[in-house]
Structures are given as structure tokens and as C-alpha cells.
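Re: that chain you flagged

S.,

Sorry for the slow reply, it's been a week of failed gels. I finally had a moment to sit down with the sequence you sent. For the record, here it is as I used it:
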Amino acid sequence: MKTDRRQFLKIAGAVSGITALNASGAPKRPNILFIPIDDLKPMLGCYGDMKIKTPNIDRLAARGTVFLNNSCQQAVCGPSRASLMTGRYPDSTKVFDLKTRMRDMNPDILALPQYFRQNGYVTAGVGKTYDMRCVDNKHDDSSWSIPYTVKPADGRYAAGYGPPVDGYQDPETKEKARKVARLWRKKGIKDGFEKKKFQMQFPGCRPPTERCEVPDNAYKDGAVAEIGCELLGRLARGGKPFFLSVGFFKPHLAFVAPEKYWALYERDAIALHPFQENAQGTPEFIYNRGYTDLGGAFTGLPVEGRMPPDLQQELIHGYMACVSFIDAQVGKLLDQLDELDIADHTVICLWGDHGWHLGDHSQWSKQSNFEQAVRAPLVIAAPGQKAKGARTESPSEFVDIFPTLCELAGLPIPAVLEGNSLKGVLDDPAATVREAAMGQFPRQVDGRPVMGYTLRSTRFRFIKWLAMDYQKGERSGPLVLRELYDYRNDPYESVNLAGNPEYTAVVDRFELLFNERNVAQHTGQRPVPCQ
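Prediction finished late last night. Pasting the C-alpha cells below so you have them in one place:
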């Protein structure tokens, strides 16, 4: 494996200093291997999906605990990651979009790797951990004791292929992308969304899928996995506990993966989502329409209206191929841990930043308060946990990751965090830290801002839409709409039950839970865990 010399010298210098510091004889804390995965929904074998092929994430699950009822705090990359990485809700981070930098809104906000760095850990990373648009150009400089590597250097890609262009390796697509890039540069277009709009004028420039006979490291995530394995080796030899984040970019669009992962699945055997209508009793504004990440961003797809069945199958096939591609990269990290003989002294935390719609309610992408967007995978394996290979229905949230890792590492839990440690659930999957997990998503209705808050219990999802200036984060305003879905009787969210008299007591209970969250937010108190 080739390594950029300047990067190597920086890492080597940091590691040599770490070794000297560790000579004090202080007890060594467990390492943390952090594995963020972009747009990964719980379409995994360990979550009960019998069609997907994810043997490596499944073997990680066999070491630890699968959180079956886990919620992200806002179903879009930037806000979700800013919330997870700070242990604070979007109402506290004030990051609700893909352009707000979290430290512009909160200069002194405490981030997870920053806290571990302050407590003697060497912190490093590669790939996507934060959303790059919501932090500084060093991927939040305060977080890392070793300079963060966002994109692999050109020389890290497979020999004979060169770096991908706009994510693609197909020679024809690469050439089209290069030509269009020269044009938008000539026109002085710099905004990312404007670039995409410009690219849509050129058929074949930005296809939604690609399957090529190439090695894994012809694409970015294959190169990220190799760098991650190298970092694991160097940090393991450094003599000091480390926090290493290896973040993968797929299965985010475009659905690009080597041919061998596409070949794992038969296109004709892929079923479309059985419910592609609006839920009874719901207005249009709650839905993610226009294929936010598809039409208008990738060529060859409709901008609006229902996706044709053949395209639905192609997209689902591509998503599944990307999931298996990333699973193979996770396997390389797990193999490296075992080879280094440090797996038993390393906490592994794997998560996808939110879910992803694959045709339910005719929705694609994320950006909603429905189950397929808010529910996100979380797998934690910790040395010494009492229950291994467990699955829990206990409602969890991404804000719980920060305090959980603190407790597993023997570090004090900062008072500013708004989640609860899940360590008790790792020992006993029947334990619980809350009755319902919270998420949220903003919308505009007739030009005015509204915020939808959702609470997910083991059976129900409650959603409350309020007309409010959500930048203030007050969680108060006139009621616009309530939604309630009963997953025991209606797993596809086909009927909104909020107005059904038979469910009045359920709605009242959720209103009480929501009001308790309001009080905790306003008083700065962390919610009290369930006993």
C-alpha cells in the first residue's frame, strides 16, 4: 500500500509522541473504532433482512448488540452527524441544513473525538465522519490530534484506473464528466447545487448507478478501507489508546459499486415496496417529494411523479450492491483488528447516519419523519459486555453514542450531553433508557417554517408538527398536524391514527412524553433514564 510521505511523517511524529506519553504507566483505556456509513438504512442481515448479504456487519453484531429501534435526530447528513458527534439535539446545535457550520452557531460546542483527545486519546480519521459542509475544511480541526484525511490521495487508487471522476470509473462516464466540469469551471459555477443543475443538461454525465469490473480500491470507499487499516496498524503500535473513525461514503448516491457486488443479486427477484401511496389522513407537505437526491441531480430519472418500476428495481439493486460493497470494507477493518490482536481491547461502534426511502409512499432519499428515514442502524461491540450477539428493542438515539462511549472508556460523561448511556443495554438487552426515541425534521408550509417532532416507542410513532421559528429551538408554536402510526397493525404507515378516538390515550401519552422533553430542554437537564 502506498502512503503519501507528508501524511506519513505527520502520523509518525504524532505516534512517536504518543508512545512517550504512555510511558507514565497510567492504565490504558479501550480503543474506539468508529465506523460511520452514509445513507445506510437497517437493510442488514443482523436486522432480520434475509435477502441482503452483509456477513461482516453480521459478524460484528455477533460480538456486540444490535439496536433494532434506533433513531437519528434529523434524517439528513449534516444535522444528523452534527447532533451525533456532539451528543446534542438539532435544537441545540442549530444545524438544520447542509450549509450551517456547527461551530459558527456554537463556537465552544464539545465534540466526541475532541473530548477523547482532551482525555489522552490520539484521535484520527479518514473518509466521512462529519458532513464536510457543516464543519471547517479540516473536518473539525479541534477533533483530531492527527490531521484528518477526507479524500484519499490520487495515488491511493488501484493501479491502472486512476482516481474516479465525480465518483465514476466507467471510462465513457469519466470523459463526459471531465468535459462538463471544464464547462462549469469556465462559467464560474461554484455552488454544488448549481453544478448539479448544470450537469443535468448533459445526458449520461451523472448516471444514478454504475457497475464495472474493477477492484474495490478503484472507488473511494475501497481506498478509505485501506487507509483505515493502515491507521489501525500504526495506532496499535503507538502505545496509547486511540479513537479512529473510518467513514464510508456509500450507499449514498450514485449507487456505484464493483460488478461482483451487483452480481450477488438477481434484478428480477427484487420486489418493489408494496405501499407507494400517501397515508390516509395526511397532507402532502409531510412527504419528501421531487426525489431530492435523484431527479434534478442524476441524469436519466424523472424529476417528479412516480418512479417507473424498472428504474425502481435498478435503484434498489444498486443500493443493495453498495451495501454489500461497504460490508466488505467493514470486514477488512475487522480482519485487521483481529490480526493486530487488539479486538478484545477495542470498542467498535458502527452506525448509518439515517435511513433511506426505497419507494415507500413513493419516496426516495431521506428527509422525512417516516420510519424508513428516521430509523437508522447502530451496532456496538464492547470488551466485557455481558450480552453478546444480542438484539434489543430498547428505544435508542444517536445522541446516546457520546455518553455510551464515555462510560465504556471510563471517562466522566459531560453534563452538557443530552442523551443517555446505553452501557446498561449492552449488558442486558431488556433494559431501557427511555420510553420513546425522538427525531425531527423541518418543512415549509405556505412559506412559513414548521417543525415536525417524532417520538418512536416499541410499537408506535407519534409526529407533532408545530408552526415555529425552529432556529430558536423553542419546541413551541401553534399545532399544525398530529400523526400516529401503529406498527403492530400497520407496518407500512398507511393510516394516520392520530384522530381515531380508539387511540386517544396513546396520543395523550405521547403528548406527555413530548412535554417532559420540552422541560428537560429548557432547564438544561439530561432526561432521566428509565428505571
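What I noticed first: The chain has a mean pLDDT of 91.

Talk soon,
D.
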